[in-house]
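DM from R.C. (forwarded with permission)

"hey, sorry to bug you on a friday — could you get me a structure for this? deadline for the figure draft is monday and I only need the backbone to look sensible"
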Amino acid sequence: MISAPTAYNWHKLWRENGVEGLANKARPGRKPKATDAYCLKLEEALSKEPSEYGYRFAIWTSDRLRAHLEKETGIPLSETRFRALLKKKGYRYHRPKHDLSHLQDKAAKKKAEKLLEEIKKEPPRRFRTPLCGRSQPSPGPSLACLLDEARAPEDHSCVAAQYQTTLPYLWSLFMENRSNFLAMRRLEE
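My reply, with the result:
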């Protein structure tokens, strides 16, 4: 909504100058700090790499560019004013995307990609261990059951007999390690 005094002012301007009197005019205020010379230096800096100025970084950030221009021109701008100037000039600031591809060995990368493709083509492997309760094809006690002293020996006697007859060497290793483990637990107590 327009106030009454504003409407009277517009009417007065129209009576005195016609339609041209209603056009927006430049308003008085503080002149911008960024001069034409500053804007030329900005465009020049953006057209070159930072390394050409002797810097040890490869990408301009708004803070680095602002510090560089302050050093070159002696005109300090706040971060907000500097970003507004970039926007006014049609430049868009984006956070740099860190990419290390220039540091990678191209031959090793291609070799790894080929290996990955070959691995993807192979069918998945399934490893089954007979001493693990969840992967046993038939229900029965697992290795944890065999190590559990609280269970009665008759609970897992058929499985123990099966392993004793089929794998005598592994069974002896298992029993030896079990006794060593139990002895160590008793010593700790």
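R.C.: lifesaver. The chain has a mean pLDDT of 76.
me: no worries. The chain is about 55% helix and 0% strand.
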